[in-house]
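ok trying again, last paste got cut off:
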Amino acid sequence: MTFFKFVVVFSFLSLTTATTYNVVTLGAVGDGKTDSTKSFLNAWVAACGSKTPATIYVPSGRYLLGKTIFDGQCKNDAITFRIDGTLVAPSNYNVLGNDGNWLVFEHVSGVSILGGTLDGQGTGLWACKNAGMGCPIGATTLKISNSDNILINGLTSLNSQMFHILINGCENVMVQRVKVLASGNSVNTDGIHVSYSTGVNILNTIIATGDDCISIGPGTSNLWIENITCGPGHGIR
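nice, full thing came through this time. structure:
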């Protein structure tokens, strides 16, 4: 039933004309060096404030972002992030290392994240931890919090500092055709962690990481997991 609702909802939205906000037009630079956080947030403010469906478009390129929170209470419940490029975390792991999360969507409804790559640049932090040095805990790449009717389709998460994708306090979430990629010696890099959520579907996904492929926390119900390739990793638990 949950899957059927997603098919109906997102098929309907695909037929609806959406206003598009191109992050490059708003000042983002895809050189992997220029901080584009403000441009992405400006795109979000515009899309969230739109009374009609809206698309945030990220062209090809590498876009450096610091910690970014896409907060909800939007005027519409049909916002699409269409990503053809790569979002890149700061290479210095101390910048995000104690922030907990890198990219956060909270209190949103009807958000779709389509395609693209999230590069957490976590290799330096893993090396620090494996050497037993004094290291920050690290940041989760993508956190979806207290949200509903979320679609994550065709996304790649690469080299997260900590968890790749965290779904917490959510309802009706579809994750499909996602790739999670990190080396087998990456520390505490769970692929997808679900907690305090209901109606989460994880389908047709490839996870290679140094910790649990999918970890299931307390308060989780109505979770469907199907056709997962896991390895390296510690399985589903």
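cool. The chain has three helices and 20 strands. The radius of gyration is 17 Å.
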